[in-house]
């Protein structure tokens, strides 16, 4: 497998995007956003994940992050995707979801071609890791992450979107701690 867009090192920051298969809007529901927040918190506490910026959109999540304390980011993201896949499916099954049948069917069909025996596939392969190489690039990616919901016309101001580190950088209430970077 190509390592062009994989985060195969430790202590180096990357901009990554983890996307649902078919760009399905899974994360329009609060319970599903909370699955991601809880999993990210776990990775921060137990797997060396250090997050500088994030945004949970309806079908994907952007992160500016790195693996620390000997943890490799590709391993962290692999485990994050594996855990959240199971948890997302379980949440669809157990909790109220008007789209339950077609979503489960889509996730089942998404793994029919796989050699590995798997019932559901929630995430696309990979996560398009881009190595952070300069302060200008960091600022560009954080601006992109924070303005994603503005561009999508979900909110008018980046800091108004609750599931984004734009709130952390504006010193507003949030559910996920990040390492704040001086962007100026």
Question: Can you offer a commentary on this structure?
Answer:
- This protein has 184 residues and is an alpha+beta fold.
- 38% of the residues lie in helices and 13% in strands.
- The protein has helices at residues 30-46, 73-94, 100-109, 135-151, 166-169; strands at residues 14-19, 49-56, 60-67, 130-131.
- Strands 2-3-1-4 form a four-stranded antiparallel beta sheet, sandwiched between helices.
- Strand 2 and strand 3 form a beta hairpin.
- Helix 1 (30-46) runs antiparallel to helix 2.
- It is globular, with a radius of gyration of 16 Å.
- The protein starts with 13 loop residues before the first strand and ends in a 15-residue tail after the last helix.
- The mean pLDDT is 92.
What's the arrangement of secondary structure elements?
Elements: E1 14-19, H1 30-46, E2 49-56, E3 60-67, H2 73-94, H3 100-109, E4 130-131, H4 135-151, H5 166-169
Antiparallel strand pairs: 1-3, 1-4, 2-3
Top keywords for this entry?
globular, 38% helix, alpha+beta, 184 residues
Structural class: alpha+beta
* Ends apart, CA distance between termini: 38 Å
Main beta-sheet strand count, sense and barrel state: 4 strands, antiparallel
Order of helices and strands: EHEEHHEHH
Output the number of helix runs.
Answer: 5
Secondary structure: number of strands:
4
Our Rg estimate from Cα atoms comes to 16 Å
Assess the beta-strand content as a share of residues. Answer: 5-15%
Give the averaged pLDDT, no decimals. Answer: 92
Helix content: 25-40%
